[in-house]
Amino acid sequence: MISRLKFRVGLLVFILLALTVAYAYYVEPRIVVLEKVDIPISGLAQELDGFTIGVMADLHVETTRISTIRSAVQRLVGLEPDVTVIVGDFAEEATSLSEIDKALEPLSPVYGVPGNWDRWTEAANFQDLTGVEMLVNRGVSLRAGIWLCGIDTALLGHPSIDDAVVGAPEGSTVILLAHEPDVALLVRPEHDISLQISGHSHGGQIRLPFVGSVLLPPLGAEYPMGLAQAPTHWVYTTRGVGMSHIPARFLCPPEVTLITLVRPGD
C-alpha cells in the first residue's frame, strides 16, 4: 500500500515538473505582457504632462521567435506612444537584421542603444538597423523640453554619461537609455537625469515562488525589474521581450511597456 502511494506521489510530481518545464519553454515565452506605469517627473513642463514612451528590450533574435517580437510590437502600436525606445541586445549571432527592421516598421520614431550581446556580435552590426536611431553616448531633443540620450553598453563598450547629456537645453527633462540598469549608480547629480530606462536583466527570466530571480547578470542585480528610485533619479527596468542562454521563462513573462510622464501631484 505504501509503495503504491509513493509511486502515485512520485508520478504526480514527475507530471507536474514535466508540465512546468513545458510551460516555461513553450508557453510563457510567447505571452507578451503590456505593463503601464506613470512616472512623476519633477519640473516636467505642463505641455509634456502625459508624454508616452513605448519600451522594448532584449529582443535576442535567434533565441527568440520573430513572431514574439512582432507580437510585442503590436501590443504597442495601438497605444501610439509618442516615442519608442529599445534598450539593447538586438541579436545574438552574426545575422542580417532585416527581420527586426521589418518587425519594427509599424513603430516610429524608434531610438535605441546597444547591449552587451550587440558588442559581442559585431558582425551583426546593430548600426545596420535602418528603422532605429542609435544613441551611443549622445542625445537628441524631442519636442521642446525632453532630452533623450543614450550610452554604450557598460559591460563591453565605452559608455559616457557625460557625453550623453552634452547639449541638453537648460531646464529640459533628461531621459537616459542604458542597457544595464545598475549604471544608475554611476549617475551624478550634475547629470540632471530624471529617468533611466534599462533592460539586460530579463527580470531574472526564471523566477521561483518565495525566492524570486534565480540568476541575475552583472550590472543587473541592483535594479532587476520594474520601477525603482536610484540615488538621483528614477530607474525603470523592463523584463524584455526575449531570452538568452536558456530559451525559457517562468513567472517572468516577456514585457513591453508604456511609460507615461506625469507632473507630481497631477
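Above is the first protein from milestone M3; the second protein from the same milestone is given next.
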Amino acid sequence: MAEPVSTRPRGTEDVLPDETPRWRRVERIARESAARAGFGEIRTPTFEHTELIHRIGDSTDVVQKETYDFSDRGGRSLTLRPEGTAPVVRACMQGGLLGGALPIKVFYVTLSAFRYERPQAGRLREHHQFGCECFGVAGPVADAELIVLMADFLAAAGIRSAVVRINSIGCDRCRPRYREALLEYYRERLPDLCADCRRRWGQNPLRLLDCKVDRPAALGAPRSVDHLCPECAEHFAGLRTLLDRAHLSYEPDPLLVRGFDYYTRTVFEFAHAGIGAQAALGGGGRYDSLVASLGGPQLPAAGFGLGMERLLAALELEGVGGEPRAGCDLFVAGEDAAGAFDLCVQARRSGLVAEFDPLGRSLKAQFRHADRLGARHVAVLGGPSRAVSLRDMRTHQQRDLAPEDILRALADAGGA
C-alpha cells in the first residue's frame, strides 16, 4: 500500500525547530572534540558506486539485506551509503590525501546513512553519524586515541553511564586458525541454529558470535584472543596498557566482532543500557586491509562511527537538553508594517535578533506575542510623532526616541 504524501517515509524522522538545539549542541561538541585531537572535517556524497559499498563485506547483513541500490538514468548502479568509512577511504584516495604526509586524520558530523531494515527504537532507515578515521598508524596508539576521543566526547555531551567493550579478532595470519575453531565448535550445533546462522557458518563464522537469537551457543564458543598470533597479541596488550594510562575503564568482550568484514585486530563498542535493545551508541576498530582492497596503498587504518539519534535518546534519559535558542533582542510593534520591516532589517544587519508582526494584529496582541518570544525590548511605531517608543520588557522603563537612535540605544544597553 502506498504511503500518503503527507507522511514522512517509514524509518525516517523529522527534526523540528524545537528539537534542533539538541542536535546543534552535540554537533558542536563533536567538532570541538575531533578538532582538539587534530582531525579535519570531511564530507562525502550521499550515494556511491554500488561496487564500492559492496566491497565492505558481502557476508554482512548490511550488504546482503539492507543497502539501497538503484540504477540512475545512465544505467550506473549506485547505492545510498550505509556507513561512513568506505566513502571516506574513497574520498581520501581520490583526493590524493593518502599519498601525503602521514597520519591522515579526518572526521564527519551528521553524516546521513541509509539501511533498509525494520524500523524500531534506536534503528532507523535513515540515521546520522559522527565518525573519525585515522590512516597511516599501525600501532595501538591510533586505536587508543580513537577510543579515548569517543569516550571524552560522550562525557562532554553528558553521557555518564556508557560501557566500553573491546576485543581483538586477529589478522589475516591468525584468523584462519580461529575460523577453523569456530567451524568445528558450531558444526554439531548447526541443526539448532537459526537460518541466518546456518548461512553464516559457511560464509563468515565470526558473525555467529553476534547473533542475538543463538546467544547461548556463542557464550561457549572459542575466544578470538586465545588464537591470536604474537603480533596481534602484542598489539592488543599495548592497547590495554594505553587505555589504562588514560584511566579509561573498559570491559574485554570475547563476543564483540562488529558488523563489517573489513575489521582487523581491534574492535570496540560503546553501549548505554538505558536505550533498550539497541544499546550500542557506536563503535569501530582497525581496518588495515580496507584501503588496499579498494585500490589504494597498503595502509593501516582505524576509525569509529557513532549514531546521533541513539546518542540523543541516551542524553534524554540522562536529562541533558540542548543549547538555548537565541533570544529576541527587539520586537517592533505598531500598525506601520513597512516601518517595522525596515527597522527589523536594520537591527538584524547590526547583529540583533529582531521580529515584527506581519499579520496586522492589534497592539495588545502584538505585545502578547512579544512576551511569548521573550523579547528584551519592544519598539512601538506609529505614534502621534515620528518618535519611537522603546520599552525595556524587564524593567518596564519606556522612552521615546528618534528612529535613527533606536539601534544606538540598544547597543548602549548591550543589545539584550
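Note on the second protein: The chain has two domains: 20-174+228-317, 330-412.
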